Amino acid sequence: MHTFGRPVRDRRQVLAKSLWIGIWLVFMASPVRDLLTAERGAAATALGWLGLTVFVVCYLALVFRYTSRVPDWGRVHGWFAAQFVLAVILAVSFGTNWLGLFVYVSVAAGAVLPPRQAAWTVPAVTAVLIAVGLRTDSLQDLLGNLAVLSVLTGFAMSGVRQLVRTTIQLRRARATVAQLAANEERLRLARDLHDLLGHSLSLITLKSELAGRMLPDHPDKAAQQVADIEQVSRQALVDVREAVSGYRRRTLAGELAGARTALAAAGIEADVPLQAPAGLPGEDGEAALAWALREAVTNVVRHSAARRCTVAFTTRQTLSGPLLELSVEDDGVGASGTAAGNGLTGLAERVEAVGGALETGRGARRGFRLAARVPMAGAAVGSPS
Prior knowledge:
Blueprint: H1 11-22, H2 29-37, H3 42-65, H4 73-94, H5 101-112, H6 115-135, H7 140-214, H8 219-248, H9 252-265, E1 269-271, H10 283-304, E2 308-318, E3 321-330, H11 342-352, E4 357-362, E5 368-375
Parallel strand pairs: 1-2
Antiparallel strand pairs: 2-3, 3-5, 4-5
């Protein structure tokens, strides 16, 4: 599931999680059939329905709320105790058909309790299942099957819970790494600006003091110092612009990593290359493709409602020379392709400025597809075929 290890955020995710949990409610068929077919008084039947309803509420409250987040242990133990007591009372009161409730107790124990608690709670619940089953004269085969199922599902859910916790920790670690990388880049820019401007500003200060002292008696020498100050200032401005331009330049490697992170955060299955292709175009061409990838992924995340996004690179031979094509395709509603917004318009101009071309339209999977083609290094710059 795309939302694995993450709390639900919208109606679609709630529905998906409800269906996944609802499948396991199949063991409720025996108690429900017993209530509908067994000959009991109205009061006993009403109490049975009430007890079963409260039991299901306890189970859903546990697995829905406390599987993928840090729980309030007081509430967890309260819900679990209530579920366990109800399972015992209902199974003792109504008989064999209600023993399946203990399977849900084991599942809840594995899903929400800490591993050490679940390690002894699941066998303990199974032992109570056997004791209650023998007391109600259950068939040995049925009792054995339920006991095995109780142990297996309980420990299986404990493993799933650990996997969910690990996934959450990995997502947090990835966010931390991204933040550290951003901080490191800021420090790099600060160091570059310090190295570039430290010497220039010191020289400007020194020459300004010299010009001030020379101005009354030696205006020609002072004018020369002022000219030197202007030259140093202009060179410092050029250096700063080059540093900032290098800082802002997009690379395909960086944008591929950012695309994987953005798509994963949006719950979209990402088929994105781990590395940029060999033989990239020049810096301007690579930057244009990087901007195209960034804009396309942004549109997928914001507008497509897609479940899957594919990024691919293809080398094409044309009359003008070899081209590197970047394609980004999703299986969403295709809304991002209904009109060329400012983002796509500006992107087309950026790609055309390096001799490339941009195409947008419906993809093979009925979603939206963006293709940007840029001449390879050494190819003639012109209109691609």
